Amino acid sequence: MKVNKQKALIGIVLFLFVVSALDKYIEGVRYIKYLIPPVCFVYAIVTKTGLTIKESGVKAFVFLAVYTLLMVPLGNQYGLHDVYFYLTFLSPFVVGLRPSMKVKNLFILFSSVFFITQMANILSGGFEFSLMDSKSTFEDHTFAFVIGLFAICFLVTEKKSLFIIALVLAILSLKRISLLAIIVCGLIYFLTRRSNKPVALVVTLALTANILYIFAAYFVATPEFSELSQQFFGVNASQLTMGRNVLYSSIFHDSNSGFISKVFGHGAGDSYILAAASIFNQDGKVNLHSDILKIYYELGLVGLCFFISLLYTYKTKAVYLAVYINVIFLTDNVSTYPLVMFVFFVLCAYIRQSDSELSGSVALNENNKSRAMF
Question: Could you list the residue ranges that cross the membrane (predicted)?
Answer without folding.
Answer: 31-51, 58-77, 83-99, 106-129, 141-157, 164-192, 198-221, 295-314, 334-351
